[in-house]
Amino acid sequence: MKARLGAYGFWQLRDFIFERAAAIVAVLGLLLWAMYAQTEVARTSVFVRGGSHALEFGAAIMGSFFGQSWHICALLAIYGICANDRTTGRFRLIFAKPVRVLPYYAQAFVIHGAVFMTCVAIAVAVFTRLFPVNGQVVGAALILFAVSYLLVGGVCFLFSAIWRFDWLSTGVILGLATWLASGHPGARWLYPLPPTWIIIDQGMSIEKLRPLEPKPLLWVIAYGVACFLLGLIVLKRRPLAT
Amino acid sequence: MIRFESVGRTYAPLGGARVRAVDGMSFTVPAGEVFGIAGPNGAGKSTMISMLLGFLAPSEGALTVDGRRPREFVEAEGIGYLSELVGIKPSWRAREAMVRFATLAGIPADRVSARIDELFATFGLEEHSTKRVKELSKGTLQRLALAQALLADDVRVMVFDEPTHGLDPLWTQHFRELVPTLRRPDRAIVIASHNLDELERLADRVAIVDRGKMVRIVDTRQVVSETSVTRFRITYRGDERVVREVFPAATIPAPNEVEVTVIGLEELNRGLASLIGRGVLISSATPAYSALEEHFRQAVRSGA
After folding, report:
1. Distance CA A97, CA B157 (A)
2. Which residues have a Cβ under 8 Å from the Cβ of B238 and sit 6 or more positions away?
3. B73 touches chain A (CB under 8 A)
4. Distance, CA of B51 to CA of A239 (rounded, Å)
């Protein structure tokens, strides 16, 4: 018999919703609430002035909302994706069944990403009810959240395939890349690091109502996908048990 | 079905000393056989099982299951496997866990429910169906783990690692009665256990491993009939003096019980016939200690 992996996707989806989606929604919700509470005076002012002022104000808040949440939410969506099964020994019963390792975790990666984006879409929908934003800003924010999942998800997936401290190593490497890039903007030796600075730059584009630049974003996507594929190779080659 | 050829496995932790967990192990387990693995703690049993399931690759030698690399075999057909440490998520409910494993085992959706009902009835899990795994007692969790191992009834390899660990005597007996029903001409069953008595009852052959090496393979179908010196405990009703006359060297551990040392079954039966002929009623004659246990002691002590 072959595993009904597609049907098992329902359980992966359910696990994500009950174990992680609530945390992601909570983070985004708290952030929204804090921003809404902190901008009460400014909101009143821009609503009175109306027009482009209101849109600029909404875009600035959206940029800030994205900038403060993309890394933590993407990390919440992906951490431990492979490593948890190893550290808890759950892999033993799962992979004694006729289950192939790579499709199992690749499917989990896709499902985590899809529910992550659903959570983000809900938060952005709520955002549009609280702040004045146009379609361009909303679209840019959704694209950037998706790209940030690919980057953080890809890097964390690779670490998760390698060892158990995936969340820690991902946090450190993302933080290091951001810190180094802020001190040496544009340096070529930054290229091997996860291009967090591109995400941050593009997040600023939201604030300034500029369109997103496809080329740098493609680099981020390529980097994330490469890490994900590298993670699959590691999973293929490494023993499941240690 | 299962073939270990000079299989070795060395662990080389970062910054740590290399550990030779399995060393030059060779044996085969044909289809139709129940094969036991016995050994003290740290003997290499878990490493052998991890390699058999394809969770670890051998450092050297060749290990095949039905002519294929273990991982290939498992991914194609699956193995009925009970792990020593039951890795079922504590927050899952018992039935939910079974549905998940049934899905992964490839059981068609329309048969899942009936199969789970059947296994829950077999293992007395009906009343625990909606409980979370963390609410189950150790024995009940072990029964759940056994049930999930038996979900697919067409698997050609079954591996039970310490199957009766945590089970009460009733369920231990139940498991022992179950194993013969799992035998099939095209299926190999591997049982790793510390319980030598259990292995002697269930397995056709038992590999004794120690410090990563295969020390001895004992054919349990022959151990009692060998002409080696064996100690039996006989319980009887009758005159103790008669028993002492027939077995002068016997020791009497309790009233109506006697322990005798004989060379092979012939001498035992001659003695028993003599006792019966002189009016002593025999209620039982069993090995005073497991013959496999004796093999185990000798093997582990001598390293051969």
Report:
1. 11
2. B275, B278, B279, B280, B281
3. no
4. 9
Rounded to whole angstroms, the Cα distance separating A149 from A110 reads 10
Q: Is B291 on the interface with A (CB under 8 A)?
A: no
- How is chain A split into domains, by residue range? 5-237
Q: How far apart are CA B264 and CA A103, in angstroms?
A: 58
Alpha carbon distance B94, B204 (integer Å): 33
Q: Are B187 and B32 in contact (CB under 8 A)?
A: yes
By C-alpha distance, which of B225, B229, B224, B219 is closest to B260? B229
Q: What ipTM was assigned to the predicted interfaces of this complex?
A: 0.87
Within an 8 Å CB–CB cutoff, is residue B145 touching chain A? yes
Candidates A91, A92, A98; nearest CB to B75: A98
- Round to whole Å and give the CA distance between B216 and B211: 13
What is the pLDDT at residue A69? Answer: 94
What is the pTM assigned to this prediction? 0.85
Set out the domains of chain B in order of their start, with CATH numbers: 2-219 (3.40.50.300), 229-302 (3.30.70)
| Chain A (5-34) residues lying within 8 Å, Cβ to Cβ, of chain B | 5, 7-8, 11
Element housing B237 (H / E): strand B229-237
Is A98 in Cβ contact with B74 (below 8 Å)? yes
Residue among B85, B104, B106 whose CB faces A94 most closely: B104
Q: Cβ A96–B100 below 8 Å, yes or no? A: no
Q: What is the pLDDT of residue B147?
A: 95
Kindly report the nearest CA distance between residue B65 and chain A, in angstroms. 13
Q: Does A48 touch chain B (CB under 8 A)?
A: no
Q: What is the pLDDT of residues A125-165, one digit of tens each?
A: 999 999 888 889 999 999 999 999 999 999 999 999 999 89
Question: What is the strand order of the sheet B257-263 is part of?
Answer: B251-254, B257-263, B229-237, B281-287
When CB atoms are compared, the residue of B86, B89, B104 closest to A3 is: B104
> Could you report the per-residue pLDDT of A30-75, keeping only the tens digit for each?
999 999 988 877 777 766 666 667 888 889 999 999 999 999 999 9
The sign of the CA dihedral B44, B45, B51, B55 is negative
Q: Which residue has the tokens 């399931």?
A: B53
Q: Which of A84, A85, A90, A93 to mutate to test the interface with B (most CBs of B within 10 A)?
A: A93
Does A42 lie at the interface with B, CB-CB under 8 angstroms? no
A-chain CB neighbours of B154 within 8 Å are 1
